[in-house]
Amino acid sequence: MTDLIPARNLDTAKPIRLTPAQAGGPIHTRSFSGRYRNLRLLGAGLLFLLFFGTAWINWNGRQAVLWDLDNRQFHIFGATFWPQDFILLSAILIIAAFGLFFITVLAGRVWCGYACPQSVWTWIFMRVEQITEGDRGQRIKLDAAPWSLQKLARRGAKHALWLAVSLVTALAFIGYFTPIRTLTLELATLQVGATTAFWVLFFTAATYINAGWLREKVCRDMCPYSRFQSVMFDSDTLVISYDAARGENRGPRRKDADYKAEGLGDCIDCTMCVQVCPTGIDIRDGLQLECIGCGACIDACDSVMDKLGYARGLVRYSSEHELAGGKTHWLRPRLVGYAAMLAVMIGAFVWALNERPLISLDVTRDRGLFRENALGQIENIYSLKIINKTQQPRSYAIALVEPGDFELHGPRTLNLAPGEIRDLPLNVALTSSENAASTRTLEFEVRDQANPDSRVSTQSTFLAPLR
């Protein structure tokens, strides 16, 4: 006889309630306040000040931070970086990656919730939505209402403000590649070039679509960090957690009721944590891929606990060990390892930054083999490309290191303006024919005459006929 799966009656008293993320519709968040919201506003304010303000700072007669693509220079206050310094940019990216790994192991996705530009701009767009269309309930009603002049006016105001924020964002971003004062003037007088206009429209559209329409879909489906961050968690990582041991069984109750006698926990099932979540999840279902660690659900739940006179922390930053009744271990091998690697890399980067040569020298030998000059000496022709990487005019001395039988013919000094690049042709003559080797190595050196310790050298070959 075939075994049958026993049937049981389902409790249909409580209908299945889908979260906004599960339902697939638009996510309308409720307004709230709290300490984590204030912390996020502080972080967003600092980010805005840095992003929008830095581009307008002048330094020694030029924009303080500017990636000058035409001249292949990156100015950051008093320092100028060239393509030859690309390794330093790579080091910054590696340090930033390890910093993100360290933060993730320590406290989960707090970068996503507090400092990621996608999240910050999404919160701004959501705030614009609340101003123009009202709070959560009003926006839900507006969505369901038929089109009218009032609905058209509210939607039009929202999208106009979204586009305004997107345009200002695009101008600020492009202002780090094109002088922002010139860019703003050209845009105001409608004299902007076709290429610049394209990038302004592109980044305006990208900001408008990402923060206005895609929102949580970027964090959930497009961002690679959301896919691999969970594998970096351990049992001591601080993540936003629901204390099920304290909260269950959940359910409504009177404020003055003895809910413990009724078998209820501290959770009153008000769904405030769901209503404020920007990704539309229910944190009570456990840690989920969509959670960006913003702390909105903590603020909402704490406000409810305060009204009921219960202790805060039903939803809080906690570790798996702490929820199980243990203690969070702060000094653990993975976290210490990331911290040590960060310290080493930051130290190495600072050393490399201080030791990087402020002179660049490239030597290219003429494609011809060699020639004989009027004195009967064998000569090779070279082209020296010299770059003054400093922000001051410099005078350089040019010489051969341990010249021996070789003699340098051409200018021995060179004056360069700040950031100037000069191609200098030089001849090197072999004054003795005793050495029968046909290929020899030369080392050219360029030295700052005002600072002899600032020097750079590079090698090249010298070709001569066999004797």
TrEMBL record:
GO molecular function, one term: 4 iron, 4 sulfur cluster binding
Gene3D superfamilies with a match to the protein in the record: Alpha-helical ferredoxin (1.10.1060.10), Immunoglobulins (2.60.40.10)
Classification via InterPro entries: 4Fe4S_Fe-S-bd, 4Fe4S_Fe_S_CS, Cyt_c_oxidase_cbb3_FixG, Electron_Trans/Redox, FixG_C, Helical_ferredxn, Ig-like_fold
Signal peptide: none
Assigned GO CC terms: plasma membrane
Bias kind Polar residues: ranges: 451-467
Record's protein name: 4Fe-4S ferredoxin iron-sulfur binding domain-containing protein
Taxonomic path: Bacteria, Pseudomonadati, Pseudomonadota, Gammaproteobacteria, Pseudomonadales
Keywords: 4Fe-4S, Electron transport, Iron, Iron-sulfur, Membrane, Metal-binding, Transmembrane, Transmembrane helix, Transport
Stretches for region Disordered: 448-467
SUPFAM superfamilies: 4Fe-4S ferredoxins (SSF54862)
Ranges that cross the membrane: 39-59, 86-107, 160-178, 190-211, 335-353
Pfam family, one: Fer4_5
